[in-house]
Write a structure and sequence with these properties.
heterodimer, A: alpha/beta, four-stranded parallel sheet, 23 helices, B: alpha+beta, four-stranded mixed sheet, 10 strands
Chain lengths: 744, 254
């Protein structure tokens, strides 16, 4: 054994100590942080991590009822696509449908039941439990029923089809109140009324644009805001390039809409004279092209509308009217449709009737224009309230005839003009119970807000009213777990029924909406043995029903033409009130204003002007020059009913005597994305109605335009909107090449 | 041949338009302007699929919006004969992309499928590529954008969320291409079938104006569309050789 002296020993110790410290530090520094795999002892049933799960359900962003597929990952909804198996949209979707996830994940959703604490309309609420909220609401409703005052309770809802409509109707019937109504702000009331008068049924016909070769549209913006935009966009694509012959589209409207921009010809008729245009074309068809057995009768009916007599009033040339008649009569499959500004004036129903007459005379009845089959899923008539009905409701409320108003997913304080004083009437109603996902202009007035699910969290179904001639119904199922303490509107009604008891429990015994819908479908399906399988298949497919060929449809009754002629003869000729400036509020991506709280829609440039986040007033360039107005000049619009301010936007596709403004902005209460942006053009309107349908008049009204002298910047996407000779829209002259890939 | 000359030859080979014909795919889109109605469904679909930020009104006014696909509007003529024409504009995935050569860090390059690709991790934000792009489809993140809670729950886990200082643009939904290739591989197929890949904008288009596919496959739908006599490429004279082919609008009015 060698001798180790003290000095060497200390050296060893020192070196060893330093080494082990270094080794320890090195080891520590490279050591991975400890991670634990947590086994999912009870794995979630409905997803595998990393793999997308798709659910088929139905879109609820407008009334069209498109089928959608929602992609979810780890229990969260990520993307909405169209359902390819759905006959309405065949896998396609519009901007609003795509933005549905903004509705589900909206930061401004009401998360618990709320009870009013502040003044009516101040929007101040306190959070309460469901038990307390439903208890207090039940107390009020029970007391009214107990005192035989059921009729003093009213239910007002937004557009509702399917079994939820049936549930509402059953609830109100069992409760003992006849006052269940739906209020929808759209441009379709005149179409319904015209159908009722001619075909005896308020269902709107199906217009087959896909197979048409000539489409004459009187103001109907079928590509963006009419009946079923996605369905008609699909049809438009096929009309243009789907077959061997390219169809032609003609648009008659004072301000170029999205459909007007896509049309081959655009005729800016004077607002309110669309009826004269239609009748003049009808007159020319009867005189020059029509040879049916009732020609003499039609000649008499239309004798006052010779193109040369009415041309001056409409702003179209006589030769243009005759040319349109010639094209319409010579087309193989012509279709004429009406909508938008043409049928929301005070002669709206008369105009829709005139357009129907055009279809009849051009031979489109039974071909381009067909009656739909009665749906196989009868869920009852929808009790649609016209604007006139809403005024009756207003009078009832301000007259003290309403003790409690249940209001579900509709916003009349926004969609009815301020001059109707609907908000004042609401303020005088003792109890207002709102079923709503958001504090909007109307639910801000409520005493209780019962928060509803987003349509992506709830059970339901939908029987589409327009858009296809197939008989179908779509199922709505939750695609994600509820985010908050909310319930679906149907579930709230079932819960109220259970708590009030008596006849209500007998009529609505189901515990929740899923059970209610399932039972309702079981009754329609009847074959109980296979029902479970049927139900599973249904949830997988999202839609049930069948396509109907043209021959299977209900035939158009022979009496229709006589009824039509009688109506035309009886209808007053035209509103001849002339104004220096006509106001045209129009529907755009915001729909009736309900999409204004979706940030993706707020940040989506307007399709025609590219403006974002605001309101604007469209003016013809010539008018703007005469008045010395540039883009961004703040204009004051004034009528006898109200006034507002908004910046000017110079728009080449509008008549010089028309100013147009988009509907959708100008909310007082609708969450952070919509509050206090822009102005609501509906507030400029009075409460005039089209007497034939009771619909609000919101086209062809007079307005006064003045400059305020202030200027703002109009925030928009577009820069220069002329090609200035750049080869953008067309290839260079004479280079008509097929394209081989990768040529240099 | 010296080593340097060898490399130059190799580089030329790589820069030759159509070099990827040696590979499996050349992703191509056709846009039929006769079908397009300018409804902008594609814009929202893209926003949802690719985690595009909500920039807000103020930043939109500063032209700092991020829209990988947008609709451009062009007016022709004056009232009453004014016509409005729509033009969907997205990254053209040029075969000779002007944006690729100037990048000092090679953050943007051409991949073997003919895609013009942006590597976010490599990008240092010089914004040179955006200056060189004649289609103005490159968008810069001037800020790290936040989503108001709980909107962030919608974010697509297959697509990275970009931060301040990074250039971004349309990827032809490369995550969907990747997914389709993986699925094909799992099925034991060498190639993706026609129609298996649809970018978000194509999938939603209500008029079927947009068609996407592999132009190396002569039987694909997109190859048929490309050969239409109406086909052209935008700003063709710049010799960028885009992978997006537009089909001219037709009709009496042109």
């Amino acid at each position: 054994m060698s001798k180790v002296n003290r000095r060497d020993f200390l050296k060893f110790i020192g070196a060893g100590g330093a080494g082990s410290i270094a080794g320890f530090l090195y080891g520590e520094s490279t050591k991975k942080t400890v991670e634990y795999l947590v086994p999912q002892v009870v794995p979630p049933e409905d997803y595998s991590p990393g793999i997308a799960t798709w659910y088929n359900t139905v879109c609820n962003q407008c009334s069209a009822g498109c089928g959608i597929m929602v992609r979810t990952r780890e229990g969260r909804a990520k993307k909405i696509e169209g359902n390819p198996a759905h006959p309405i949209n065949e896998g396609r979707l519009c901007p609003r449908g795509q933005a549905g996830l903004n509705n589900l994940y909206n930061p401004d959703r009401v998360r618990t039941p709320l009870k009013r604490t502040g003044e009516r309309g101040s929007g101040e609420f306190e959070a309460v439990s469901w038990d307390q909220a439903l208890g207090e609401v039940t107390g009020i409703l029970y007391a009214l029923k107990d005192q035989q005052n059921s009729e003093r309770v009213r239910l007002l809802t937004g557009p509702t089809t399917g079994h939820l409509n049936q549930l509402y109707a059953t609830f109100m019937a069992a409760y003992g109140s006849p006052h269940y109504q739906q209020y929808v702000f759209d441009d379709l009331a005149a179409l319904r009324e015209a159908s009722k008068r001619v075909f005896g049924d308020g269902a709107i016909q199906y217009f087959d644009l896909e197979n048409a070769d000539y489409v004459l549209s009187f103001g109907a913006d079928y590509l963006a805001n009419w009946l079923s935009p996605v369905h008609y966009s699909l049809a438009y694509g096929n009309l243009r390039q789907g077959g061997p012959k390219r169809g032609t589209c003609v648009q008659i409207e004072p301000r170029m809409s999205l459909s007007g921009a896509s049309a081959d010809q655009w005729f800016p008729a004077r607002p309110g004279t669309e009826i004269l245009v239609a009748l003049a074309i009808a007159n020319a068809i009867v005189e020059n092209h029509y040879n049916g057995s009732d020609r003499a009768a039609w000649r008499t009916a239309l004798r006052n509308y010779r193109p040369k007599d009415v041309a001056a009033a409409t702003g179209l040339a006589e030769i243009q009217l005759i040319g349109l008649a010639k094209r319409m009569a010579s087309a193989e499959n012509p279709v004429a449709i009406s909508g938008g500004p043409a049928i929301t004036g005070d002669n709206g129903v008369a105009t829709s009737l005139a357009v129907l007459a055009l279809n009849y005379l051009a031979g489109s009845f039974g071909r381009g224009v067909t009656l739909k089959n009665a749906p196989e899923f009868g869920t009852g008539e929808r009790p649609l309230a016209s604007f006139a009905d809403m005024l009756v409701l207003r009078d009832a409320m301000s007259g003290g005839d309403v003790d409690a108003l249940l209001i579900s997913e509709t916003n009349p304080v926004y969609t009815m003009p301020q001059s109707s004083r609907f908000a004042d009437a609401l303020a005088q109603t003792p109890t207002i119970i709102a079923l709503s996902s958001f504090i909007d202009d109307t639910s801000a007035m409520a005493d209780f807000i019962l928060p509803t699910d987003s349509y992506l969290e709830a059970w339901g179904d939908d029987v589409p009213e327009f858009g296809t001639r197939a008989s179908i119904a779509s199922i709505q199922q939750p695609v994600v777990e509820r985010l908050y303490d909310t319930k679906s509107s149907g579930h709230i009604m079932l819960e109220l029924a259970r708590r009030i008891g008596g006849e209500l429990t007998v009529a609505l015994p189901n515990a929740n909406m899923e059970e209610y819908i399932r039972n309702a479908w079981r009754q329609s399906y009847k074959d109980d043995n296979n029902f479970d399988q049927f139900w599973r298949d249904l949830l997988e497919a999202g839609v049930s029903g069948r396509r109907v060929s043209r021959d299977d449809l209900n035939p158009i009754p022979a009496s229709a033409s006589a009824a039509l002629r009688r109506e035309i003869e009886a209808s007053a000729a035209v509103d001849s009130t002339e104004h220096a400036f006509y106001l045209q509020p129009y529907l755009t991506t915001y729909g009736d204003g309900s999409a204004a709280n979706l940030p993706w829609i707020q940040e989506l440039p307007d399709p025609l002007t590219s403006v974002v986040y605001n309101s604007w007033v469209e003016l013809n360039p010539q008018t703007a020059e005469e008045l010395g107005i540039r883009e961004g000049d703040v204009l004051a619009l004034r009528t006898e009913h109200g006034s507002l301010e908004a910046p000017a936007f110079v728009y080449p596709g509008i008549r010089p005597d028309v100013v147009a403004m988009p509907i959708g902005q100008g909310h007082k209460h609708y969450g952070r994305y919509a509050d206090n942006r822009g102005a609501n053009p509906l507030d400029l309107l009075g409460t005039d109605t089209d007497e034939a349908s009771g619909a609000l008049v919101w086209a062809a009204v007079g307005v006064e335009v003045t400059k305020t002298g202030r200027r703002v910047r109009v925030v928009k996407l577009d820069g220069v909107t002329r090609t200035l000779g750049r080869q953008i829209l067309h290839p260079p002259e004479g280079s008509g090449h097929g394209s081989e890939s990768g040529h240099g | 041949m010296s080593l340097i000359e060898k490399y130059i030859e190799k580089y030329k080979e790589y820069r030759r338009p159509g070099y990827y014909e040696a590979y499996d795919y050349h992703w191509t889109m056709t846009i039929d302007l006769d079908r397009c109605t300018g409804c902008e469904a594609c814009m929202v679909a893209c926003q949802a699929e690719n985690n595009l930020p909500i920039v807000g009104e103020k930043r939109f006014a500063q032209r700092r919006e991020i829209k990988w696909i947008r609709i451009e509007r062009y007016w022709e003529g004056e009232y009453p004969n004014a016509k409005l024409r729509f033009m969907p504009m997205l990254c053209q995935h040029c075969d000779q992309a002007p944006c690729e050569t100037p990048c000092p860090v090679a953050a943007t390059y051409h991949n073997q499928d003919g895609l013009n690709t942006q590597i976010y991790n490599r990008c240092i934000g010089t914004r040179t590529c955006a200056v060189y792009c004649p289609y103005e489809v490159r968008y810069f993140n001037w800020f790290t954008y936040k989503w108001d809670e709980p909107l962030e729950q919608q974010l697509n886990p297959d697509v990275s969320v970009r931060e301040k200082g990074v250039m971004e643009k349309c990827t032809f939904c490369i995550q969907r291409i990747r997914m389709a290739k993986d699925n094909a591989k799992d099925d034991g197929r060498r190639r993706v079938r026609d129609g298996e890949v649809t970018p978000a904008c194509v999938e939603t288009c209500p008029t079927e104006a947009l068609v996407f596919g592999d132009s190396n496959d002569p039987d694909s739908r997109v190859s048929g569309m490309m050969n239409s006599p109406r086909g052209y490429r935008v700003l063709e004279h710049l010799n960028t050789v885009p992978s997006v082919v537009y089909l001219q609008r037709v009709g009496a009015d042109g």
